[in-house]
Each structure stands twice: as structure tokens, then as C-alpha cells.
């Protein structure tokens, strides 16, 4: 399956007591599809994968599969800092019917490049499902080097990389080292940084796995399509989104985007410790931008 364009790293809505709010989740999915989003990532960083228990994780994925119902590609976050757990989650997600999985680099234990290579190869060898590597060193304390990615890119089950560094030099390295797999449509590069996603796609990237599209799916979709076609409208939209792209990261994701969705009346206020509500000192910063964008 060719997965390109604007892909929403969707929040997991929760009730005030922290229980998962499946009714709001269904509404969010429908809003995304109605506004032309190209795909959804369920239970990723933005979906609070780190605070969701394993049994819940699979329940949520199952709900997404049934709700999306094949209308757009569904990617499930199944990464873990233990390879055995990542294999279990990935195999379970495959059996539930996802289209692909997103595998964050193992966090906290800081593996070597050889350890990262063996981690991803072990998952790819054991589970026959399309797999996207996720590089976000600001959160995991480990960076998967472009050379390591290129060594993994030839595996038939490894179909792409989400890069959240925002570093265009890294994009250029990846684009060069993985050129043969990219040219043959066997490997895709996705931005994981809303601020630089327009430039990423204009340089040849295949899409954006976006936080901002939680609240503005139509505009992010338009921007990605325009950037792909080198349409000047891409820069106009990117400028329009530039402030909200920044403000959705004034505290750890998904704290600000959950607050924004709450203000828009789309979800309840639930979020799980150790994540907390958006600091009151930042409320006006988000509110002002939502008002400017006509979202509240």
C-alpha cells in the first residue's frame, strides 16, 4: 500500500477520570476523514502510547480498525523499548487488521546503531506487515543514523521512515542513501515535524505525520498536496499555519493539542499522568491562535 500525503498522529481522547472516550474518538476519526486526511496514526506519541496499558493499546487499535473500516490507511504505533514487546504489539496489530505500523526507536536504554539495526530487523523478520521506523531523538535519547536506515530500507517489510528532527541535512542524507528503494517505490520518507514539513515534502518527501492536522486536517492536507506539486500555495498555507505549529509544542505533546481540541469542543479534558493539563500561563497563547484561525 502506498501511504503518502497528510497523516494525522491522532490524540486518544479521554474522560476527566482518564478513561478512554470512544465516542469522542469516533467523532475525531470522522472529522479527519471528512476533511480529506490521507491516513491516521493511532496510539503514537500524540496518542499517549506511553501511558496506555498493553491491553488497552490493543483495544484502541481494534476500535480504530473498525471505525476507519478501510476508508483510509491506518497505521498503529507499536514501538517499545524492548524488542520482544514491540514484536508482540506489532503482531497483535497486524492480526487486528491495521495497514501498517509505526515503530519508534527504543527509548531510555540508548542502544547502539547495531542494536537498532538488530531491533528493527528482528521485528521485520518476524511480522509480515508494512513497518515505518520513527526517529525522534528529542524524546527517545537515541538517533538512528541515516546509514543504519539505509541498511534496513531493503527489507521488504520496512517501508519508510518518519523523521522528527526537522533537520533537512538528515533528509538529504536519507534521500541519497535510500535512493534506489525510494525510486522503486519501496521506501517512503515522512516528516514528523510540522514546522519543517512543507520544506521536507518540497525536497521530495512523501508526506507529513502531523500533530497540527488534529485541529486543521483540511489545511494540512492542502499544504501537503501543494508542496508535492511545488505549488506556491504550499508556502502560503505553511505561513498561515506557522504560529499554531509552534504553539502546539509549547509544552510536551500532546498537552497543547489536547487543550486546543478541548477548546474546540471536540474532546473532554482527560490526560494521564505524568502528563498534566496545559499550564494556565499558556492558555491565552493557544486561545489567541485558535481565534485567529477561526477555530473557536
Describe this structure in words.
The chain is of the alpha/beta class and 296 residues long. It has one domain (5-233): TIM Barrel, CATH 3.20.20. It contains 13 helices and eight strands. It has helices spanning 22-34, 54-68, 83-96, 113-126, 137-140, 146-152, 168-177, 179-183, 197-202, 217-228, 233-247, 255-263, 283-292; strands spanning 5-9, 39-42, 74-77, 100-104, 131-135, 158-163, 188-191, 207-210. An eight-stranded parallel barrel has the order 1-2-3-4-5-6-7-8, surrounded by five helices. Helix 1 packs across helix 2 (54-68), helix 6 (146-152) packs parallel to helix 7 (168-177) and helix 12 (255-263) crosses helix 13 (283-292). The mean pLDDT is 97.
Summarize the structure.
The protein is an alpha/beta fold and 296 residues long. It has 13 helices and eight strands.
Which stretches are low in confidence, meaning pLDDT under 50 for 5 or more residues running? none
**What kind of assembly state do the chains in view correspond to?**
single chain
Main sheet record: 8 strands, parallel, barrel
Our measurement of the CA-to-CA distance between the termini, rounded to an integer number of angstroms, reads: 37 Å
Percent helix, as a range, is 40-55%
Rounded Rg: 18 Å
Query: How much of the sequence is in beta strands?
Result: 5-15%
Q: What would CATH call the class?
A: Alpha Beta
CATH topology: TIM Barrel
Count of structural domains: 1
Mean pLDDT: 97
> Helical stretch count?
13
- CATH architectural name: Alpha-Beta Barrel
The helix/strand series, from N terminus to C terminus, equals EHEHEHEHEHHEHHEHEHHHH
- The coarse overall form would be globular
Q: CATH-wise, what's the superfamily?
A: Aldolase class I
Structural class by SSE content: alpha/beta
Sheet with most strands: strand arrangement: 1-2-3-4-5-6-7-8
What's the total count of β strands? Answer: 8
Amino acid at each position: 500500500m502506498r501511504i503518502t500525503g497528510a497523516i494525522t498522529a491522532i490524540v486518544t481522547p479521554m474522560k476527566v477520570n482518564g478513561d478512554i472516550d470512544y465516542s469522542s474518538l469516533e467523532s475525531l476519526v470522522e472529522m479527519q476523514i471528512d476533511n480529506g486526511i490521507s491516513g491516521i496514526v493511532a496510539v503514537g506519541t500524540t496518542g499517549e502510547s506511553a501511558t496506555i496499558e498493553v491491553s488497552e493499546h490493543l483495544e484502541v487499535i481494534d476500535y480504530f480498525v473498525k471505525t476507519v473500516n478501510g476508508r483510509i490507511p491506518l497505521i498503529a504505533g507499536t514501538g517499545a523499548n524492548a524488542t520482544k514487546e514491540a514484536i508482540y504489539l506489532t503482531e497483535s496489530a497486524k492480526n487486528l487488521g491495521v495497514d501498517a505500523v509505526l515503530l519508534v526507536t527504543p527509548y531510555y536504554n540508548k542502544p547502539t546503531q547495531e542494536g537498532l539495526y538488530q531491533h528493527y530487523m528482528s521485528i521485520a523478520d518476524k511480522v509480515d506487515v508494512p513497518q515505518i521506523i520513527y526517529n525522534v531523538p528529542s524524546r527517545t535519547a537515541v538517533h538512528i543514523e541515516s546509514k543504519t536506515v539505509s541498511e534496513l530500507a531493503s527489507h521488504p517489510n520496512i517501508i519508510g521512515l518518519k523523521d522528527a528532527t526537522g533537520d533537512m541535512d538528515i533528509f538529504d542524507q536519507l534521500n541519497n542513501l535510500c535512493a534506489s528503494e525510494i525510486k522503486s517505490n519501496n521506501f517512503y520518507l515522512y516528516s514528523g515535524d510540522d514546522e519543517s514539513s512543507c520544506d521536507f515534502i518540497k525536497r521530495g518527501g512523501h508526506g507529513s505525520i502531523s500533530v497540527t492536522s488534529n485541529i486543521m486536517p483540511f489545511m494540512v492536507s492542502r499544504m501537503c498536496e501543494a508542496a508535492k506539486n511545488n505549488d506556491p500555495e504550499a508556502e502560503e498555507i505553511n505561513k498561515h499555519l506557522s504560529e499554531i505549529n509552534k504553539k502546539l509544542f509549547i509544552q510536551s505533546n500532546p498537552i497543547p493539542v489536547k487543550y486546543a481540541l478541548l477548546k474546540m469542543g471536540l474532546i473532554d479534558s482527560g490526560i494521564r499522568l505524568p502528563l498534566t493539563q496545559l499550564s494556565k500561563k499558556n492558555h491565552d497563547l493557544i486561545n489567541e491562535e485558535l481565534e485567529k484561525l477561526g477555530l473557536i
